[in-house]
Design a protein that fits this description.
With 369 residues, this protein is mainly α. The chain has a single domain, classed as MetI-like fold (Orthogonal Bundle). Helix content is 68%, strand content 3%. It has 14 helices and two strands. It has a two-stranded antiparallel sheet with strand order 1-2. α3 packs parallel to α8, α4 packs across α8 and α5 packs parallel to α12. The longest helix is centred in the first third of the chain and has 36 residues.
Length: 369
């Protein structure tokens, strides 16, 4: 029996070995190369093939130098893209799933219509939405159908910015956001009577409060001069296209979750006098928590990969709809600053890991339970 198991283990290792080698070289090897390149002054093989190690200077330049002010606004845009894309796709996807779950007539046709946008590439949908959001036509022309004057909103070129904050206070902003998130976790753990999670979250909240009120004021500002960033209204057009395209995907996830619930649960709720609204808000939606977590990770990942949608809708030179991936492209392949572009790529990689790694850890813990 022991020899048989050892042979099976050997065969398994031999079968997996080519894939492991390829992943090690072409995934993790390239990631390591990119990280190293981001710590050099490399300008590309055609300009200067020599890489001189300069440490974290590129990262310092991205977050503090005046010349890279645009990249910092791109990071703020990324946060807004992520938050609103998540909220929009999850809300509309859930509503569509609930409508279809109520056994509407010709459900298959509606399901196909809602899912169809996801089958399109961002380049195709981005081109169509660029026409729809043109200042002289598209959505702005709708008021003329009713005898009113044409709309003037600049969907992807507006220069107006709201919800501004000073980048000098970025440490305060981050501490506040993280504190709010952990306070939500703390309240949730108290409600669920999870003593271990309550203790852990209480310690984290206490540390954050100490940092915010005692340590943080002693730190120097992030940059020397006032630098305002905020929510660019030009990103609304990009968000409309993204939410339209991926709401159907969220609907498919939620619909599968709703159909996976036992029919006896709904029947029992009806016998107890629960309305449709009560059933979905009190019973069905709370049971869809794993689906929601999966959707959050997927949509957050997509929000970091909006390069082709923004490229098709606004181009690479529209600073008001900027995204780190667009700036990474122009910095690397137009300005030949490969080291600085590599630093931007590493920052995007870290942003993606912030969503994916906690989800993987959570999923692993659930499998072990």
């Amino acid at each position: 029996m022991g020899k048989k198991n050892s042979k099976e283990t050997l065969y398994s290792v031999l079968i997996l070995l080519p894939s492991i080698i390829l992943i090690a070289v072409f995934v993790y090897g390239f990631i390591g190369t990119t990280i190293y390149s981001s710590m050099t002054d490399w300008k590309g093989m055609s300009v200067d093939p020599i890489k001189n190690f300069i440490g974290l200077d590129n990262y310092k330049s991205l977050f503090t130098s005046f010349i890279n002010k645009g990249f910092r606004q791109d990071l703020v845009n990324t946060v807004t893209y992520t938050i609103f894309l998540l909220a929009g796709t999850l809300i509309f996807g859930l509503l569509l799933a609930i409508l279809l779950d109520r056994s509407v007539k010709k459900e298959g046709i509606y399901r196909t219509i809602f899912l169809y946008p996801m089958a399109l590439s961002f380049i195709v949908s981005g081109t169509v939405w660029r026409w729809l959001l043109a200042p002289s036509g598209g959505l702005n022309a709708i008021p003329t159908w009713f005898g009113n004057s044409q709309g003037t909103f600049q969907w992807i070129s507006s220069k107006k910015q709201i919800w501004q904050f000073n980048w000098q206070n970025i440490f305060k902003v981050l501490a506040l956001v993280i504190a709010v998130v952990f306070i939500i976790f703390l309240i949730n753990s108290i409600i669920n009577e999870n003593k271990k999670a309550t203790k852990r979250n209480s310690i984290v909240v206490a540390i954050l409060l100490i940092f915010a009120f005692i340590i943080q004021p002693l730190l120097p500002p992030a940059i020397a001069t006032e630098e305002l960033h905020g929510f660019n209204l030009a990103t609304i057009g990009i968000l409309l296209a993204g939410i339209w395209q991926y709401s159907g995907y969220a609907m498919a996830l939620y619909l599968a979750g709703l159909r996976g619930l036992s029919a006896s649960i709904k029947e029992s709720a009806k016998l107890d006098g629960a309305s449709e609204f009560t059933y979905y808000t009190k019973i069905a939606i709370p049971n869809l928590k794993p689906i929601t977590m999966s959707a959050v990770v997927i949509m957050a990942h997509i929000s970091l990969k909006l390069f082709d949608l923004i490229y098709a809708m606004a181009g690479t030179d529209n600073a008001f709809t900027g995204h780190p991936s667009i700036r990474m492209y122009t910095t690397t392949f137009r300005a030949n600053k490969l080291a600085l572009g590599s630093a931007m790529a590493v920052i995007l990689f870290i942003c993606a890991a912030m969503f994916i790694i906690p989800y993987m850890i959570h999923s692993h813990k659930e499998r072990l339970q």
